[in-house]
Design goal:
Elements: E1 2-9, H1 15-27, E2 32-40, E3 55-60, E4 67-68, H2 76-83, H3 100-111, E5 117-120, H4 126-132, E6 138-142, E7 160-163, H5 166-176, E8 188-191, E9 210-214, H6 220-230, E10 238-242, H7 248-257, E11 264-266, H8 273-278, E12 282-284, H9 289-297, E13 302-305, E14 321-324, H10 329-340, H11 345-357, H12 363-378, H13 382-390
Parallel strand pairs: 1-2, 1-5, 2-3, 5-6, 6-7, 7-8, 9-10, 9-12, 10-11, 12-13, 13-14
Antiparallel strand pairs: 3-4
């Protein structure tokens, strides 16, 4: 099969892009795979992409003026004029960087697509794929959210939607009004998790007296507050926070107000998280399943909120981590205090469970799930798929 993954920004760090690029590499061992990124945003190669997988960018946004990355007769002035016109292809709330130039390049790329399967991996892209991809191409949308927020418009027109967990699959089925129908449902709903990191990963000794927060910082403030309480009776412990974004100034003020200068480190983004996880004793409030699996690969257990979707569907309470009620700061501090206690038996037992638990997400099984889904859909005649999809051309407003 020829499989093309389409995402808005392949160059940016984060769970979603890393998972897509890693999966492309696994599938490339047995299939013809290409990754297409609407934007090029960094000069360095995309992280996590196998050297044997071609990566094609459509528009270069590393300079002051967007530049199409295909041979074109457009002058600098023409490009500037197109870039000044708001895009009409996607919802600007989802993709504010789209303009008339981007619309032109993406439309052309989709209309000339040579693929058996197109996987859209950004929420703004199912609509353009439905409108402009060749009729015979199987369209799959990969949704990286937990299923408790807004679903991308027009996902119902895809041949399949892949989510990370069974909980997210049930929520999408309800949002689409599809119930839990069988394989004939349109779109086909499949739960295929992110793969656990493959190859050698450094292991944690869990003796460093270090807790780590990594990824989106939306809940990092909760972790800092809980750490201030839990560490009062745990001398020598520190909290290391990896991530960037608009929450950073607020976190700095919070650390100052709690007088935690010497115990809480705000370290920004790191390209070497495998090594950083190996220095950690446990993870605090991972925001995504991918972060949990990165920690688990190093034998690092997690303390997480027990909410719908996301890490709560990976962390097994008392086996490889601890789950606490969503937003319960006292319970979060209590769980952290348990792992920071002088008796390290619980910490090491959960860490061993974390390392062993990565087998549930082995790359081979995850790749096989994608292969089987693609093969199943490709085998359905294009006319049958088109007739089924036509019945679902209604935007989905919100998952529940």
């Amino acid at each position: 099969m020829r499989i093309v993954f389409l995402l808005a920004r392949a160059d940016e760090p984060g769970d979603a892009s890393r998972a897509v690029l890693t999966r492309a590499g696994h599938l490339a061992a047995r299939h013809d795979v290409e990754v297409v990124s609407v934007f090029r945003t960094r000069d360095r190669p995309a992280p996590a992409l196998d050297a044997g997988v071609p990566l094609r960018h459509l528009v270069d946004r590393t300079g002051p003026v967007p530049v199409p990355l295909r041979p074109t007769a457009l002058t600098d002035r023409a490009r500037q004029q197109l870039a000044a016109v708001p895009g009409a292809l996607v919802d600007p709330i989802l993709e504010p960087d789209f303009d008339a130039l981007t619309d032109t390049e993406l439309t052309l790329a989709l209309r000339t697509l040579d693929a058996d399967v197109l996987v859209t991996a950004s929420p703004a892209l199912p609509g353009p794929a439905a409108d402009h991809a060749p009729a015979g191409v199987v369209r799959i949308h990969e949704e990286h959210g937990a299923g408790d927020g807004a679903w991308p418009a027009r996902v119902g027109e895809c041949d399949a939607v892949v989510v990370r967990t069974e909980g997210a699959r049930r929520r999408l089925a309800e949002a689409l009004g599809a119930g839990l129908r069988g394989p004939a449902a349109v779109p086909r709903l499949a739960a295929i998790p992110y793969p656990a990191p493959a190859g050698f990963r450094p292991r944690s000794s869990r003796t460093t007296r270090t807790a780590v927060v990594a990824g989106p910082l939306t809940r990092a403030g909760h972790a800092v507050t809980a750490f201030a309480s839990a560490s009062a009776d745990a001398p020598g412990w520190r909290l290391r926070v990896f991530g960037d974004g608009p929450e950073l100034p607020r976190l700095r003020r919070q650390v100052a107000e709690l007088a935690l200068y010497e115990r809480v480190e705000l370290l920004g983004l790191s390209p070497h998280m495998a090594q950083e996880w190996a220095k950690a004793s446990f993870a605090v409030l991972p925001s995504t399943c991918g972060e949990v699996l990165e920690a688990y690969a190093a034998g690092v257990p997690a303390v997480a909120y027990d909410g719908a979707g996301g890490p709560a569907e990976v962390v097994r309470d008392g086996i490889d981590g601890l789950l606490v009620p969503p937003g319960d700061g006292a319970a979060l501090a209590g769980a952290m205090a348990r792992l920071m206690a002088d008796d390290a038996e619980l910490l090491h037992r959960l860490g061993a469970g974390a390392r062993a638990g990565t087998g549930r997400f082995a790359a081979e099984a995850v790749t096989r799930g994608w292969e089987e889904l693609c093969a199943e859909l490709v085998a359905v005649p294009a006319a049958v798929r088109a007739e089924r999809a036509a019945r679902h051309r209604v935007p989905v407003a919100r998952g529940r």
